[in-house]
Design goal:
The structure is a single chain. The protein has twelve helices and ten strands. The chain is an alpha/beta fold. It has an eight-stranded parallel barrel, surrounded by six helices. The chain has a two-stranded antiparallel ribbon with strand order 1-2. Helix 1 crosses helix 3, helix 4 runs parallel beside helix 5 and helix 7 crosses helix 8. It binds prephenic acid and manganese (II) ion (MN). The site of prephenic acid has 9 residues, from helix 1, helix 2 and helix 3.
Length: 355
């Protein structure tokens, strides 16, 4: 191989690169003009039929050496980039993203603010079992100055034979007891047709991990004005998690709290693996408050304290923890709940405010 011919071939490529560059940018200018016309007439930017016709014509004229598949792939990339050029800069970013909304969203639960520097704790039993059970926990929350009471009335359980919750009766218990102690109710809703029930009884609608991609449910909570606690699905990526939140916010409800609750891994010594890295990533990618459910993330009481500290150190706006007057006889998640004296000790160790 003569050095000169190698150099001259490379020189030819340099020239062709510049010509291609010039051509794709000329194409882009025309695409922009078409985009303006489409905008003026309210037309869809994406036109798959036009794209298919262009590809068919290109392949008809293709004499190689590039294969039809390669040509198709290259031009599809050009069409995609062209489409992005036509879309408004603003609309490319999700509503839940910090790029779209740089300041922290404060979720207001009545007079209780979540996020924006406030550190909060949601506590209560896994399931509502009786009024006495809920009252014992509520009384303690009130004593400690805590405001947010959780309890499950609709329980999406892995086995259909497990306790499914008290349903509306459970919600009514939560409401009565919360009102008695001036607390706010956080409870899961599983059915899009139960929004009226939610509005009657709860202050925050929880969307459980198993329903993170129940899109009809997400649309339904997006259309009401109650705050939503959205839990990350056990196998959901952070991108999928934020898209789920986008379903809610895009329907008009921006009062969304993101809740990391552990993801499924091969590890067996914890119920799930607490993805602590999710917290700072969600805080920087999104303006929504971020909570960590330390009970479901770990499934074991002995490491709740370090996990709570880790959550706050990572920037979480709050934690959620399961507390039951007598965990041994709990109808769900018995092994992971702590009793009231244990919760008292946990609070003292976590924050001198509670000592
Ligand atoms: C263009 C861009 C996006 C559409 O999906 C189809 C085609 C292209 O790049 O060729 C241009 C365009 O908007 C159009 O022809 O309608
Ligand atoms: Mn539980």
């Amino acid at each position: 191989m003569g050095q000169t011919s190698f150099e001259s071939l490379r020189k030819q490529l340099d020239d062709l690169n510049l010509q291609l560059l010039h051509l794709i940018n000329r194409r882009a200018e025309i695409v922009r003009e078409i985009g303006e016309i489409k905008k003026k007439h309210g037309m869809q930017k994406f036109d798959p039929i036009r794209e298919r016709d262009m590809l068919t014509n290109l392949i008809k004229s293709n004499k190689g050496p590039f294969s039809d598949r390669t040509i198709s792939h290259l031009f599809k990339q050009i069409f995609q980039a062209s489409l992005e050029l036509q879309q408004d800069e603003e609309k490319k970013e999700l509503l839940v993203s910090r790029k779209r909304h740089p300041s922290d969203t404060i979720v207001q639960i009545g007079d209780v603010p979540i996020g924006g520097g406030e550190k909060s704790i949601i506590a209560g039993p896994c399931s509502v079992e009786s009024e006495e059970q809920v009252r014992e926990v509520a009384k303690f929350l009130k004593q400690q100055g805590l405001k947010l009471l959780r309890g499950g009335a609709f329980k999406p359980r892995t086995s259909p034979y497990d306790f499914q919750g008290l349903g509306e009766e459970g919600l009514a218990i939560l409401r009565r007891v919360a009102d008695e102690y001036g607390l706010k109710v956080v409870s899961e809703i599983v059915n899009p047709s139960d929004m009226e029930l939610a509005e009657r009884y709860v202050d925050v609608v929880q969307i459980g991990a198993r329903n993170m991609q129940n899109f009809e449910l997400l649309k339904a909570v997006g259309s009401i004005s109650l705050p939503v606690l959205l839990k990350r699905g056990m196998s959901a990526t952070l991108e999928e998690f934020l898209y789920a939140a986008e379903y809610i916010v895009s329907r008009g409800n921006n009062q969304v709290i993101l809740c990391e609750r552990g993801i499924r891994t091969y590890e067996k010594w914890t119920r799930n693996t607490l993805d602590i890295s999710a917290v700072p990533i969600l805080k920087s990618e999104s303006h929504l408050p971020v909570f960590v459910d330390i009970s479901h993330a770990t499934g074991r009481p002995d490491i709740l304290l370090p996990m709570a500290k880790a959550a706050f150190a990572a920037g979480a706006d709050g934690i959620m923890i399961e507390v039951h007057p007598d965990p041994k006889v709990a109808l769900s998640d018995a092994q992971q709940q702590i009793n009231i004296p244990q919760f008292e000790e946990f609070l003292k160790q976590l924050d001198p405010r509670f000592a």
